[in-house]
């Protein structure tokens, strides 16, 4: 980030070694911006490997970062639902984008991107197709199991039973959305909702979640999958004393 | 060896040189399972009381043959060690109906012994009521008398009132020294971390009481002028069951906190309430063990725990509370829910963690705890 605007960004799949992944993604973002590491005033790390990033001066949890990123995009946002690959969270924000309450899944992965991936694969759909295909459905199947593995068996049963792919796809989105909504309902959230994380790119889940929670998600001006990194950049800017971070 | 290193080394092993030495000199060792089992009776019978533990566990595969995956991971790890023969150095085990999971270990261990014909042969089930009342106290006193008789008959010994009195005095001293150390955490200078206090209690419950007293005396000396609290650390109250993994506690503290008070099996629960030395020994022991700082197994004692919670938060200047429960622990599940509303009433932030014992998931715990501390910092900034 520079002068309160997003100068460049990069997203890469995480590899086996956190440090290597962090260096790779940083190199790509720097190349895009025409900068070098030495040109950075401050670096903040976030995410699961945040403690192991050698070039970061400090780290902030992804819960705070997702909140801050969403706030940077739209200061009226007061509640963030983050559905990532491995976990999902609901976060309440104050007027400055600071996390003041949160909940996070701890029982299982049924409300996460990983579970969507498994279920999409079971019906031979790419993860990116799950959303668009599901939007054509008017008769979603019901998936009642709470465990991802049993959900997969249920999905296969519908698949072999000849149900339409689009109906199964919407059923999957509904099921994952229900898990996330159940978690989020544990918080006292006020309007001004945003959906972040990789799963937010699945329009089907987003729509199902809006229905389950009875809310409308505000569109974000930056790729919602970037929200954690964006929040970390805002924190780095504050640390470096940059105005309008 | 520095006392902290000694504690670390004693706390992370199933056996230790003091036990081996005692065994070599012919002394017997009696395992037990819960902080409701009176060590005084075992000591008066000539045993070294040894609290069963899951440290050095290799997994739960063997324990799972007897238990179900819906049982708590403490009993599965602990029993796994029993199946592997890790507790074969014991002469007996006293089981306890702390909860249904741990109570079931008695049945499983009897089956195991019938199969293996190895390991501790004396297996005794001690029952304590789940309520505090005069009737419950009478019942528990009878149960303790039954334990005395079982030990006497099985090992051909006599547990006299004098022996019990001596043991009570020794264990009161041990409790009082440990209480002194834990109370040192009241001030701004905190002499030991929560992780160190877990290691300390694990060590104390695995050595002869005379050695425990000497370790505690050394520890008190080492704690003078020691401060492990870092500037800005949040002062934490930890509540939970048998948290044995010092590394897990360390992980929590590494996010920016220091444990200054607790209601843990391996913590304050070990030191609370001395035994009255001028009463007949068995009723006095029964009174102490039934009415000391309770765990949620005591269903009609939440008021006392809540009072302790409130007073401790005030006296130890606690900033935040973390409850830590094992999956499938119904007792701590209910307690965590009740403590949440107590914390709300007292206006103190609370976080509930749930985990599998030795189960990893460090990333999730780290994120949750760090975000909790960040949340508190955000709320405190607003108040300032």
Notes on the protein architecture:
Chain B: Belongs to the FldB/FldC dehydratase alpha/beta subunit family. Chain B: It comes from Desulfatibacillum alkenivorans DSM 16219. Chain B: This is Benzoyl-CoA reductase/2-hydroxyglutaryl-CoA dehydratase subunit, BcrC/BadD/HgdB. The complex is a heterodimer of chains A (245) and B (384). With 245 residues, chain A is an alpha/beta fold. Chain A contains 8 helices and 6 strands, in the order αββαβββααααβαα. Chain A folds into 2 domains: 99 residues, 2-Layer Sandwich (Nucleotidyltransferase, domain 5), CATH 3.30.420; 143 residues, Nucleotidyltransferase, domain 5 (2-Layer Sandwich). In chain A, strands 5-4-3-6 form a 4-stranded mixed sheet. A two-stranded parallel ribbon of chain A has the order 1-2. The mean pLDDT of chain A is 91. Chain A is globular, with a radius of gyration of 19 Å. In chain A, α6 crosses α7. Chain B has 384 residues and is α/β, with parallel strands linked by helices. Chain B has a domain of 138 residues: Rossmann fold (3-Layer(aba) Sandwich). Chain B has 14 helices and 8 strands. A 4-stranded parallel sheet of chain B has the order 2-1-3-4, sandwiched between helices. In chain B, β5, α10 and β6 form a beta-alpha-beta unit. The chains are: A alpha/beta (245), B alpha/beta (384).
Keyphrases for this structure?
heterodimer, A: 245 residues, alpha/beta, Nucleotidyltransferase, domain 5, 2 domains, 4-stranded mixed beta sheet, 8 helices, B: 384 residues, Rossmann fold, 4-stranded parallel beta sheet, 12% strand, ATPase_BadF (chain A), metal-binding (chain A), iron (chain A), Dehydratase_Activator_Redct (chain A)
Set down the secondary structure blueprint.
The complex is a heterodimer of chains A (245) and B (384).
Chain A: H1 18-33, E1 44-45, E2 58-59, H2 62-73, E3 79-83, E4 88-93, E5 99-104, H3 113-122, H4 127-134, H5 148-160, H6 165-184, E6 193-196, H7 203-213, H8 227-239
Parallel strand pairs in A: 1-2, 3-6
Antiparallel strand pairs in A: 3-4, 4-5
Helix pairs in contact in A: 2-8, 3-5, 3-6, 4-6, 6-7
Chain B: H1 3-11, H2 17-24, E1 28-32, H3 39-44, E2 47-51, H4 73-84, E3 92-96, H5 100-116, E4 122-126, H6 134-155, H7 161-183, H8 194-204, H9 209-223, E5 234-240, H10 246-254, E6 257-263, H11 281-291, H12 302-315, E7 320-326, H13 330-346, E8 350-355, H14 362-383
Parallel strand pairs in B: 1-2, 1-3, 3-4, 5-6, 5-7, 7-8
Helix pairs in contact in B: 1-8, 4-5, 6-11, 7-9, 8-10
